[in-house]
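Researcher: We're teaching a course module on how sequence relates to structure. For the next exercise, students receive a sequence and then see the predicted structure as tokens, so they can try to spot secondary structure elements on their own. Here is the exercise chain.
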Amino acid sequence: MTTERREPAQNADERTMLEGWLDYHRQTLAWKCEGLTDEQLRTTSAEPSELSLLGLVRHMAEVERNWFRRVLVGDDPGPIYYSEQDQDGDFHTTEADTWAEAYATWQAEIAVARRNAAGFALDGLSKGRSRFSDQPFNLRWIYTHMIEEYARHNGHADLLRERIDGSTGD
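Model: And here is the predicted structure for the students to work with:
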């Protein structure tokens, strides 16, 4: 698999720009995982952290599911990897957890996210509400938050990848 990262358009309208940056960061995480074995993808950063590239992909599948299903459209299919007993289950990988499964799940959640977002204008309000303010979110806020979430975790992915095989890059 070769991940194609496309720079976002420089002169696009706002929605195209936001979607372009979100896709760029999604592609960056996939690129950081490219060419590694399942064992390497499960490699954690440094104790006591349980952070791994595979865990990040699983986590982002949960994040996509939360914001574009639960919050945006009010659909709550439940968690994929975590549970009430293990709130960080997305990061708790075992030898049974594979890239093929995590990647397929993450891509499926991204596909649902795109479909759900397509039904909203940037100013369209979510069905779900903030747990802090009890206010809905507009799609613009959700896109911006998702870009921030991916950018932060892609920084983690940079360090994890460098630890695994020395690869560095933007």
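Model: If you want an answer key for the exercise: Residues 139-165 form the longest helix (27 residues). The first strand starts at residue 125 and ends at 129.
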